[in-house]
Design a protein that fits this description.
Length: 115
């Protein structure tokens, strides 16, 4: 058994995935179970932070990099560049992988999920 996160295993090439981009500290892949016409995940290469609150406290610059990279990817993968950014935080909010990641949801979303 190992507690290595699924994203670390993908990054290490142990599990196949469609990696669509990277920066020095981040990589991006398509979600295996898309919830929108475009559903990407932006993930720090380091598994140091479990969720976005830990990341915000420990490395706010990396959180800002995640948001900027999400915007770059949305421009590349949609016609309008519009996107929704979701951080599921905690099991009761639907988080299943405890290696912080942002969901980038895009491609003609017209219904608000909140508000
Ligand atoms: P969470 O539920 O933690 O917010 O998001 C984890 C996401 O990772 C889910 O949307 C799930 O579909 C995605 N996921 C889980 N395992 C894999 C995998 O092996 N490959 C890819 N590409 N996505 C995965």
């Amino acid at each position: 058994m190992t507690d290595t996160s699924i994203f670390t295993r993908i990054l290490n090439g142990e599990i196949p995935a469609e990696i669509i981009g990277e920066t020095d500290r981040l990589f991006a892949l398509r979600d295996i179970a898309p919830q929108a016409p475009v559903h990407l995940l932006v993930v720090p290469k380091s598994a140091e932070y479990r969720d976005v609150t830990e990341l915000a406290a420990g490395d706010p610059a990396l959180l800002a990099e995640m948001i900027a990279f999400a915007g770059t990817l949305a421009k590349e993968h949609t016609e309008d560049g519009d996107f929704r950014l979701v951080f599921n935080t905690g099991a009761n909010a639907g988080q299943t992988v405890f290696h912080v990641h942002a969901h980038v949801l895009a491609g003609g979303l017209t219904e608000k999920s909140v508000g």
